[in-house]
Write a structure and sequence with these properties.
The protein is α+β, with helices and mostly antiparallel strands. It is built from seven helices and four strands, in the order ααβααβαβαβα. The chain has a four-stranded antiparallel β-sheet, sandwiched between helices.
């Protein structure tokens, strides 16, 4: 499968079959991720594969979301995001594998100096490249994937569970797909590209 074909045909999967993914395939997906570029070859990433202890993760997220609902008043847009986080929890329950990508160079809080701010942004961008590589590699193996953003509602609880003070930059759900979503409508190049 060529790269452009993989980019065009990969879809975010939210429904997974019960088939398991062998550890060697998971290792190959992560290997594809770590081939991403990074600033000064810093490779600011670490991976936590959640497989056997997934129920612990689910419980932590459920408790965190429940605490948010009971203890904090929310604006309408925050309530909509909370509904999205609850829907994502259902995806996490169904996916056989969750992989957290941890930014080993950044703490949860942001740095103050110009150089630190630059490095934080560069690290985040390089981790984005890691995630994209992993999504494309998953597609190559016929494995469905979803880049999960809604983990940020319970990021403190997840950080404690993972025993890290480093920034959790991403979470990825993996599993054999049980759906074939249509492509999303994308904005056209003329709308997005300015030539100078």
């Amino acid at each position: 499968m060529d790269v452009l074909s993989a980019i065009e045909n990969r879809r975010s999967i939210r429904k997974f079959s019960t088939n398991t993914i062998d550890n060697e395939t998971i290792r190959n997906i992560i290997k594809a991720g770590i081939n991403a570029p990074s600033p000064k070859n810093s490779q600011p990433w670490k991976f936590v594969v959640v497989k056997e202890s997934k129920q612990e993760l689910i419980t932590i997220i459920e408790e965190g979301l429940e605490e948010i609902k009971t203890n904090f008043g929310m604006l309408l847009d925050e309530k909509n995001f909370l509904l999205s986080a609850e829907a994502t929890l259902n995806i996490i329950k169904e996916a056989p594998i969750i992989i957290f990508v941890i930014n080993t160079e950044n703490k949860q809080e942001h740095g103050k100096t110009r150089v630190k701010k630059y490095m934080e942004m560069a690290n985040i961008l390089s981790i984005g490249a890691v995630v994209e590589n992993m999504l494309l590699a998953s597609h190559k193996y016929g494995i469905g994937s979803l880049w999960i953003g809604d983990i940020y509602f319970t990021i403190n609880e997840i950080s404690r569970w993972l025993q890290t003070d480093r920034q959790i930059a991403a979470a990825i759900a993996l599993g054999y797909p049980d759906e074939k979503p249509s492509p999303k409508v994308r904005k056209g190049l003329d709308e997005l590209v300015e030539w100078k």
